[in-house]
């Protein structure tokens, strides 16, 4: 590809930033400034230099770095273990959420790649700079970032593996909730596999093929297996929503190294142990 194609199509650099790179001559191939129609060859060293002043940095309230449990980190991205009960990002200017804590830990503004519901715990990916953010977003859209969740559900699935493809939309009667809406809903696909069956409940693995709001929660509830402790979709509530982002897998967009992390949740594991000891058959 040409230098222009690399910047636009592979690195997904916004037009404004490409303009700065061009005017400041901050793109070099093998140490030399080149024309943007120059074709890149295997083994070429492409160097991009970004000025922080070219990016508008969002101002965030300071967080608490001690609340950040790092699962993986390099100069471009960070994966952390989110606590149950903590928001991914703030909805109000005076709120402090995980994004604030991670940014304070890193020492600069980070960016949300995907989010977890407040009640959900587990592995969560953030970009450490605005350059890598659109690339990670594209990997997510192309389903190249794999997310595996564990859920404790009511009852037992009819078979070991099921695939739900119900379209999801907003609940007109409760703005917090989503519902299955075959006519106006957006396509959603969730793959569910039984891991362990207890007396009244089952531990299942859920893999997302799309990333709709409350997707796993709505799919399971709609098919008669709501997640234990779900405050919105399960009238039989428990101590916490038993949904945990257990594993996150991707290939690093720059180094091409495979990255796989697993997140543990003490509260989730304790409830599972109680379920096993009290109801395991």
From TrEMBL:
<dbReference type="GO" id="GO:0009982">
    <property type="term" value="F:pseudouridine synthase activity"/>
</dbReference>
<dbReference type="InterPro" id="IPR020103">
    <property type="entry name" value="PsdUridine_synth_cat_dom_sf"/>
</dbReference>
<dbReference type="GO" id="GO:0140098">
    <property type="term" value="F:catalytic activity, acting on RNA"/>
</dbReference>
<comment type="function">
    <text>Responsible for synthesis of pseudouridine from uracil.</text>
</comment>
<feature type="active site">
    <location>
        <position position="117"/>
    </location>
</feature>
<comment type="similarity">
    <text>Belongs to the pseudouridine synthase RluA family.</text>
</comment>
<dbReference type="InterPro" id="IPR006224">
    <property type="entry name" value="PsdUridine_synth_RluA-like_CS"/>
</dbReference>
<feature type="domain" description="Pseudouridine synthase RsuA/RluA-like">
    <location>
        <begin position="76"/>
        <end position="222"/>
    </location>
</feature>
<dbReference type="GO" id="GO:0003723">
    <property type="term" value="F:RNA binding"/>
</dbReference>
<dbReference type="GO" id="GO:0000455">
    <property type="term" value="P:enzyme-directed rRNA pseudouridine synthesis"/>
</dbReference>
<keyword id="KW-0413">Isomerase</keyword>
<dbReference type="Pfam" id="PF00849">
    <property type="entry name" value="PseudoU_synth_2"/>
</dbReference>
<protein>
    <recommendedName>
        <fullName>Pseudouridine synthase</fullName>
        <ecNumber>5.4.99.-</ecNumber>
    </recommendedName>
</protein>
<dbReference type="InterPro" id="IPR050188">
    <property type="entry name" value="RluA_PseudoU_synthase"/>
</dbReference>
<dbReference type="InterPro" id="IPR006225">
    <property type="entry name" value="PsdUridine_synth_RluC/D"/>
</dbReference>
<dbReference type="InterPro" id="IPR006145">
    <property type="entry name" value="PsdUridine_synth_RsuA/RluA"/>
</dbReference>
């Amino acid at each position: 590809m040409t230098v222009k194609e690399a910047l636009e199509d592979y690195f997904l650099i916004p037009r404004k930033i490409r303009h700065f790179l061009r005017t400041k001559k901050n793109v070099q191939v093998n140490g030399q400034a080149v024309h943007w129609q120059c074709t890149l060859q295997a083994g070429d060293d492409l160097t991009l230099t970004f000025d922080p002043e070219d990016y508008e940095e969002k101002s965030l309230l300071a967080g608490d770095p001690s609340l950040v449990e790092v699962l993986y980190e390099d100069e471009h991205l960070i994966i952390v273990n989110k606590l149950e009960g903590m928001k991914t990002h703030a909805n109000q200017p005076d709120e402090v959420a995980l994004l604030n804590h991670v940014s304070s830990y890193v020492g600069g503004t980070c960016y949300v790649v995907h989010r977890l519901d407040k009640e959900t715990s587990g592995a969560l990916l953030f970009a450490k700079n605005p350059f890598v953010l659109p690339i990670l977003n594209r990997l997510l859209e192309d389903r190249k970032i794999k997310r595996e969740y564990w859920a404790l559900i009511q009852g037992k699935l009819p078979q070991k593996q099921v695939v739900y493809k119900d379209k999801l939309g907003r609940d007109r009667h409760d703005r917090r909730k989503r519902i299955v809406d075959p006519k106006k809903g957006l396509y959603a696909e969730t793959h569910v596999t039984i891991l362990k069956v207890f007396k009244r409940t089952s531990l299942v693995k859920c893999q997302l093929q799309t990333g709709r709001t409350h997707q796993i929660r709505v799919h399971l509830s709609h098919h008669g297996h709501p997640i234990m402790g779900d405050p919105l979709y399960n009238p039989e509530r428990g101590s916490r929503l038993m949904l945990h982002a257990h594993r996150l897998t991707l290939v690093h967009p720059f180094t091409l190294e495979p990255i796989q992390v697993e997140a543990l949740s003490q509260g989730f594991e304790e409830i599972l142990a109680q379920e096993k000891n009290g109801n395991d058959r």
